[in-house]
Amino acid sequence: MAEITSSEFRDFDSFREHLHGWDTEPFQLDAGPLRLGWDQLELEDFQLALLQVNRRLSDTSALEPGALGFSLALEPMLWCGLEVPAGSLLVLSPGRDQRSTLRPGFRSVEIATSEDLLHETGLLADPIDPRAFPPERCVVPLGPGLVRGFEELARFLRHPAGGEVSPSGAAALRSRTLDLLRSALQGRGLPGIRPVPRYDLALAALRLVEDAPEYRFSVQELARTLGVTRRALEYAFRSALKVSPGRYLLARRLNRVRSDLRAPARPNVTDTALRHGFGHLGRFSEQYRRLFDELPSQTRRSESPPSRTSEPAIR
Questions:
Q1: Across the strands, what pairs with 23?
Q2: Which of 7, 53, 72, 230 could covalently link to 109 via disulfide, CB atoms 3.0 to 4.6 Å apart?
Q3: Share of the chain above pLDDT 90, in %
Q4: Cβ atoms within 10 Å, residue 120
Q5: Which residues, at least 6 apart from 251, have a Cβ–Cβ distance to it below 8 Å?
Q6: Is the separation of the CB atoms in 59 and 102 below 8 Å?
Q7: Cα(91)–Cα(80) distance, integer angstroms
Q8: Is the pTM of this model over 0.85?
């Protein structure tokens, strides 16, 4: 029997450990307790999942070689510098960072398959080449009928009968998903997706920060390094991430503190805060509490919620 597992995560590290075939590095950008839902059916060469998030996230993810992913956005999102409307299918290939900004209440149907399965079913004629299409050619707006088909998959994942699926039922669900993908990909490469204004500038700033994770950039220093005004950088971040650069830089550091505090070693709060550039501990605690709705000492004492694990499905 196959099984649909339903998990709710309150931290990103537990969620990352739960995934197979791809990695992700999300950051929480707006205030409040995180709730990340993941309902999944996992077979040997196929994964079908429903993702739900309750906070604004900035995320960079990547697929492992030999796999191909598809994401049906049930809500609007920003992806690889594009404004993706609800009801769009994203084609996700290895070798490309999938950068996205998800708003509170975002939902998507996530599909991952092996390259071999796509060849066997006739969905893929050639080896996966992530350089073959720019991002705008990997966004496929779908008609209402196809969107309803994917929403039916999401409802099945969210409310399965007892969580167990018979082998024949799992095979039928996989076949139905592949049929929907086949119909959707007939429109692959449709133009008309709007680019995010000044995304190139925001991306250059993000890469500077990511390439020097231990360095504490200021907004003014980022702007000066990139040869632009602070106002231009503010506009680029608000377009690409829906937050100011200052708020993003602070949230990124706070997220890294949270990840460290939840690590098995459970490091000292003061040492962790200082290591990430927070010199005023009282202000740090308030900023942390405002973003995550708990004090850093509470994070350090809390237990990570258990997550179910199994052998990797995408080989």
A1: 62
A2: 72
A3: 62
A4: 12
A5: 27, 28, 29, 243, 291
A6: yes
A7: 12
A8: yes
The tokens describing 71, both together, are: 């994401």
- Give the pairing type, strands 77-79 and 2-9: unpaired
What is the 8-class DSSP label of residue 137? Answer: G
Q: How far apart are CA 221 and CA 204, in angstroms?
A: 13
Token representation of residue 146: 């196809």
Residue 148 contacts residue 17 (beta carbons within 8 Å)? no
Residue type for 191, please? P
CA dist 131 and 96 (Å) reads 8
User: Helix, strand, coil shares of the chain as percentages rounded to 5?
Assistant: 40, 25, 35
Rounded distance between C-alpha atoms, residue 116 and residue 145, angstroms: 28
Asked if 40 and 48 touch (Cβ cutoff 8 Å), the reply is yes
Rounded Cα distance between 187 and 205, Å, is: 34
Task: Collect all residues with Cβ–Cβ distance below 8 Å to 80 and sequence separation of at least 6.
Answer: 96, 98, 99, 100, 135
Phi, psi of 35 (to 5 degrees): -135, 115
Residue 191 has pLDDT above 90, yes or no: no
Query: What Rg, from alpha-carbon coordinates, does the chain have?
Result: 20
Counts of helices then strands in the chain (DSSP H, E): 11, 14
Report the half-sphere exposure of 193 (CA within 13 A, side-chain side).
Answer: 30
> Quick one: tokens of 152?
């039916």
8 A C-beta contact, residue 239 and residue 196: yes
Per-residue model confidence as pLDDT tens digits over 131-146: 567 888 889 999 999 9
